[in-house]
From TrEMBL:
InterPro entries: Epimerase_deHydtase, NAD(P)-bd_dom_sf, NAD(P)_epim/dehydratase. Residues 2-238 form the NAD-dependent epimerase/dehydratase domain. It comes from Fodinisporobacter ferrooxydans. It comes from the Bacteria. This is L-threonine 3-dehydrogenase. PANTHER family: L-THREONINE 3-DEHYDROGENASE, L-THREONINE 3-DEHYDROGENASE, MITOCHONDRIAL. It holds the Pfam family Epimerase.
Amino acid sequence: RILVTGALGQIGSELVGKLRDVYGETQVVATDIRKPGTTVTESGPFELLDVTDAKQMFAIVQTYKIDTILHLAAVLSAKAEAQPLAAWNLNMSGLLNALEAARAYQCKFFTPSSIGAFGPNTPKEQTPQDTIQRPTTMYGINKVAGELLCDYYCLKYGVDTRGLRFPGLISHVALPGGGTTDYAVEMYYEAIQKGTYASYIAKGTYLDMMYMPDALQAILTLMEADADQLQHRNAYNVTAMSVQPEDVAAVIRKHIPSFTLEYRVDPMRQAIAESWPNSIDATTAKREWGFKTEYDLQTMTQDMLAKLQCRLQNTKTA
Ligand code: VAH
């Protein structure tokens, strides 16, 4: 069975459903620190789990005979910058507990890293798979430490750990929880709800992005790859596009011609964004395990607006 922590988060909310489609509803145990609201339509096992509680984590792994742990529970970049100590505690003790459980019960292991694992003196264009990583945010420090911990558990204990350095993820099912790239998700929602959006990230600030369906497929493809294909493990650069706010607005305008984009830059999140790469190079992931994406900015925008239109319309009529 598969254990998913942070199952009610932006990735978890969709990953649980996809895993249950592929492996069977009873094979995926969804966990989070809070109970699912009525919105979580997933059927299948759910358990309350605070990932900082090792006892609780071990109990669930043992009870359900877990053989794969997908550890998603974490504090994202902007929230982590506002509460760095709380972020360190949750991000690092949660990860360590999950790795210890994987070691004790011989589980396969996945946790996301991020483009946030790079810092201001990392090459900004086509950032290589192997390069300097001196992030200046608590989130980035957590991600680099996480990558090193995962490699350590593989090297020292033989735990099959794997990871992906995710770009900003765009999705319409669950909102991201306090990230820096969230502006792009908000822009789609507000394009429909208000016809205008004030971006907290400045014009011309490039960041890597990916549509959630591609992110979910990348997790499954990586986890199913033969271990001996993996030279890099923790964690692979993956991306689908590098965009700045104007690029997203221009494609939205193809569907909503009257859409207007303004700027209300948030210095803290702008500083985080500027410390990250403009575009990362994903050739290693393509070469080692066949990473690929289906969605580009045009097709992602078309799907996002269509799905949001229908959902927001329903809430209007409901
Ligand atoms: C964040 N969405 O903004 C996350 C992600 C690359 C961005 O790590 O913090």
